[in-house]
Amino acid sequence: MVKKFSSRDLLTIPNLLSVLRIVLIVPFVYYFLKENYIIAAIALIISGLSDALDGFIARTFNQVTDIGKVLDPIADKLTLISIMVCVTVLSPIVLPVMVVLILKDLSMLIGGCILIKKKITPPAAKWYGKVSTFMFYISVCIIVFLKAAFNYENSVVSLLLLSFTTLMMIFSLIKYFMIFLSLLNENKDRKDIGIKE
Description:
This protein is mainly alpha-helical. The protein is 83% helix and 0% strand. It has seven helices and no strands. α2 packs antiparallel against α3. The radius of gyration is 18 Å and the shape is globular.
């Protein structure tokens, strides 16, 4: 069941790191669109490091909270969508791949909202979700670095990198969808038992 969020839950290091990732979207988008790729890359690197750290700290120091389970994927999705938009502006050839990724992320957000509405706590981020996010960061950093440092843009390289990332994200979506169905079934079984009793 979903617990009420408290200010104490929010003020944990992992949750503050998730909030930091959301805040870092603003300077990343601003400097990226201004073609100041170095500062944009620094914002993205800090965001990626905080993403890797928040889950580790939460598990290691027993700071896993319900609000963290919501904040972490929201920060991931907002960051990814902002990166997708910026990379599409830089390399319009990747638009079809970006559309697939955006639909995938929106479907996960909708699934999380459905679980919350049914008073079911959304699952914590799994390894395959983290791996797909990491792959996306790496792919984007390579594409942006080649463009910024060498003014080199290769649509084949961009599509290959993002296609591999897309496959991993589709795999993680399928796995999360299986968890989503499992949680809905468990909740239905619990209600059925309650009615019988």
